[in-house]
Amino acid sequence: MKMKKSIRWMVMLAMGLMLVSGQAVAGEVYKIGLSLAITGPTSDAGNPYAKGVEDYFNYVNDTKMLGEDKIDCTIRDDQYKNDVTKRNFEEFLDMGIVFYLNYSTGSTLALKRDFEEEQMPVIPASFHAGNLENSNYIFLPIASYSAQAIGLAEYIVSHHSGGAKPKVAMFIHPSAFGRGPVDDVKKAMEAGLAIDIIEVVEHGKNLDNTAMLKRLKSKGVEYIISHTVQSPVATMLKDAASLDLIAGSFGQKDKFTFLGAHYTGGNDLVALAGPSAENFYWTTSYIVTSEPGEGAEMQVALAERYGRDEKAANSHNYANGMMVAQVAAELIKRAKEKGKEINPETLYEEILAMNGDKAFDPKTTVGPVTFSKTDHMGVDTLQLYVVENGKFKSAGEPFIPEYTAKISQ
Length: 409
Hints:
By secondary structure, the protein is α/β, with parallel strands linked by helices. It has two domains: about 30-145 and about 290-375, Rossmann fold (3-Layer(aba) Sandwich); about 145-285 and about 385-409, Rossmann fold (3-Layer(aba) Sandwich), CATH 3.40.50.2300. The protein has helices at about 1-25, 45-60, 80-95, 105-110, 110-120, 145-160, 175-190, 210-220, 230-240, 265-275, 295-305, 310-315, 315-335, 345-350, 400-409, and strands spanning about 30-35, 70-75, 100, 120-125, 140, 165-170, 195-200, 225, 255-260, 280-285, 375-380, 385-390, 390-395. Helix 2 packs parallel to helix 13, helix 6 (about 145-160) crosses helix 7 (about 175-190) and helix 13 (about 315-335) packs across helix 14. The longest helix has 25 residues, at about 1-25. It is globular. The protein starts with a helix and ends with a helix.
């Protein structure tokens, strides 16, 4: 009888050791949450963004980038509704997330206090400069909308051939997202940026911009800087083409030269606007797949690996989602290498240390990702692109807007 009990205990001990061993082999699981608009307003950006995040984290797990440890990212559709985003964030906290990826400007601003209270490091898809005001835990992945709009205005000034100040209109989204850069461009003007803003237009759901374009033409507007998403810009470009008002060369007299910030452009705009997108100038910190390079090859390969269609594979918003996932995974990797427990506190320490020789090059951007206690804007560098023969091509070298620093002093 004693022998049978002894054997039974030995079997149970062996099974216990196997279970423990199995747990060790399985590794740790690090939870991350993402709430964004996969459907509803701005879903043309949110949908490929979500795919980029999902695919890169799958790649991290499938290639054992973190050894036997894995990242479990829960992605929720909030339809661009702040109350849904807040509920998602609270549920993510209950899940034990170590890092959070947010989306819209409105929800990032609304949850700013929550992020502070929870001491949760956050990278949003919103590049609104106001996200960083009175915030310790929000980090923009790339140059802010304000920096982008100022960069476009600086390009206008340096390439404008007329003697007088260039006359500019701003075509913006009717939200905090759209309005964000307007005041900062005006501050840059006060600091010496030599443009005249003739009118700021908040677009509605009106599918005909003919009257607006004629009004701007009558006021002598030469350049239109857009800060919204692709769909309304595509509609405006088509309307401008029907009126024969699109400049064939930069600053062409009696025509409009159209320019836009990150969410206005990319291959998605070309698909929507067709030939009307020709000569559209656009800036972002992301690479484009229409130009060969290591980052473009990596992006397309990732999309193909996980069965994405050509539209998603070539979207700059897919690159956008991919890049924030790259940063999150890199933070976990660096913390692991230092033997740290993976939690919001240690990942916050690592993101603040991502500078100098610890800067991160994800290959999906035109410059390195750097963060510090005093710098929460990741990639400072911008690239200007222009549509030529239906494809975005680089116009000049990557640059950092001069007046962004001037207005922050």
